[in-house]
Specification:
Blueprint (H helix, E strand, L loop, with lengths): L1 E4 L5 H9 L4 H4 L8 H12 L3 E7 L5 E11 L2 H4 L1 E10 L8 H15 L4 E4 L6 H9 L14
Parallel strand pairs: 4-5
Antiparallel strand pairs: 1-2, 2-3, 3-4
């Protein structure tokens, strides 16, 4: 297993994983060809040093997981940086093998390397199994999150 930076040719596989669940299927458009917005977003992520999009690749070169790690500098915590984990997915036929834990361990270590003082994430309340998984990794539901959709 290899965790590496995502490349442009990985975008269709990433979008397929994002679209392959109950919530993702309602908001993603996995089709061939992909809408241009996905490649445009990939370029914005790739060129911004505060964002890292990675994939998990098996020995055959097949993408089986992904996550995005973002670094958010701010004035609190004496000018600290926090890391935000987003869009975590493991391919449906690879779940339950410890691969999600592997991705999270990589992300947590990467956040420490980059000087972050904490790692945070959000999870949809419609995903109770994800909440249990994050808690098993040591994450605590310490805040109440809110969103305003446009």
């Amino acid at each position: 297993m290899v965790i590496r930076e995502a490349r442009k040719e990985d975008v269709p596989s990433i979008v397929e994983m994002l679209a392959n669940d109950k919530l993702g299927s309602q908001r993603e458009q996995f089709q061939n060809p992909l809408p241009a917005s996905y490649n445009e977003a990939f370029e914005r992520i790739k060129t911004d040093p505060n964002h890292e999009l990675v994939v998990l690749e098996d020995a055959s070169g097949t993408l089986i997981g992904t996550l995005q790690l973002s670094f958010l500098p701010y004035l609190t915590y004496q000018g600290g940086t926090r890391a935000q984990i987003e869009q975590v997915r493991i391919h449906e036929n690879q779940r339950g093998k410890g691969l999600g834990k592997m991705l999270f361990e990589w992300a947590i270590n990467r956040a420490k390397e980059k000087g972050a003082h904490l790692v945070q994430l959000t999870t949809d309340k419609k995903r109770p199994e994800a909440l249990k998984f994050y808690e098993s990794l040591g994450f605590q539901a310490s805040h109440e999150g809110m969103k305003l959709k446009f």
